[in-house]
Amino acid sequence: MTQRTSFQPIERNLAMELVRVTETAALSASRYMGLGDKELVDQAAVDAMRHTLDGISMDGVVVIGEGEKDEAPMLYIGEKIGDGSDPKVDIAVDPIDGTTLLSKGLPGSIAAIAMSARGTMHVPASIFYMDKICVGPEARGVIDIEAPARDNLLNIAKALGRKIGEITVTVLDRPRHVDLLREIRATGARVKLISDGDIAGGIQASLPDSGVDVLMGIGGSPEAVLTAAAIRCIGGEIQCKPWPRTEGERKESIAMGIDVDHIYPTEELVSGDDVFFSATGATTGELLKGVRFFGGGAETQSLVMRSRSGTVRWIEATHNFERLDKVRYS
Predict the structure, then answer these.
(1) For residue 253, pLDDT beyond 70
(2) What is the pLDDT of residues 221-235, one digit of tens each?
(3) Which residue, among 7, 1, 19, has the nearest Cα to 274 in the 3D structure?
(4) Helix (H, G, I), strand (E, B) or coil at 237
(5) Which residues lie closer than 8 Å to 277 by C-beta, 6 or more apart?
(6) Which of 23, 130, 263, 283 is 20 to 30 Å from 289 by CA-CA measure?
(7) Which residues pair with 303 in a beta bridge?
(8) Phi-psi category of 66—alpha, beta or left, where left has phi over 0 and alpha has psi -120 to 50?
């Protein structure tokens, strides 16, 4: 059973401050859409996100970031963010989820960030991939990541009041999912393959009327935490289990005291009652519209959520670059 701990409530709605962070990341990175340079896209988003985070009054620590200090110039794991004032928060960032998509000009890339009270985000740093299953509120409590795909899909269909052939499953298009796809297709469920971006895929599976009912399969561990933060706000469920890529990685994790058979429920990945999430579209996908530039400015669309109130906001913004520059450099 997950141990729940009490934390000092965060009275400020940090989600409304986080949206500026993901907006600037998406705006900066999307300038390099389709140029074929993943590193350029990622660095632009990291720089913009870091600059905007500096302007938020908080005592923040990056727990999910761009890597260890020696491997990432900014937003590295353990980096302190803010001016040191309250609230004390954990920060998870994915400056661009879908850097390959954005670098190729393909749909579905987003900038994403989550915050929660200090000490509430949990994922082993040495585990890079996890097996995942995500559903929305109506199917909460009926999934089991260790059960066969057929059992999960039957239970989800029953919870949603549908036939299994009316259930849509999102899966990352990877060779490692050959067996999973065979199992899913054998049930008659509909399959939606995505090339990248399983944060957006997990959120879609949790939102009502999105056209997606469940996300299954193996994806990144950092993305699991960000997805869990969004799901804490929406009210769905995610379950994850470590997926060591090699026997060496498995042995290394065990030697570090990590239980590679442990199942991480939503509330263990992100616990506490104050969770904030924001995502802004970089290239237009099914979840969010991408950045649209016009003379002197741009338009963005963001998804912003807060767990305490359960509020989900869709924010469309118009950015005037001339006025923004005056504010930034005044």
Answers:
(1) yes
(2) 999 999 999 999 999
(3) 7
(4) strand
(5) 15, 18, 112, 113, 114, 226, 229, 230, 232, 233, 303, 304, 305, 306
(6) 130
(7) 279, 314
(8) alpha
Burial (CB count <10 Å: 0-12, 13-18, 19+), residue 120: buried
Phi-psi region of 127 (alpha: psi -120 to 50; beta: other; left: phi over 0): beta
- Quote the CA–CA distance of 202 and 134 in Å, as a whole number: 6
Nearest to 304 by CA among 88, 54, 23: 23
Q: Are 161 and 187 within 8 A, CB to CB? A: no
Inter-CA distances, 318 with 4, 23, 44, 207, Å: 41, 10, 20, 25
C-alpha distances in Å from residue 201, one per residue of 207, 224, 326: 10, 11, 37
Helix/strand/coil for 308: coil
Q: In b/e form, how buried is each residue of 287-309, taking b as 16+ CB within 10 angstroms?
A: bbbbbeeeeebbebbbbbbbbbe
In this predicted model, what pLDDT tens digit does every residue of 9-24 receive, in sequence order?
Answer: 565 678 889 999 999 9
**Amino acid in the structure at residue 87:** P
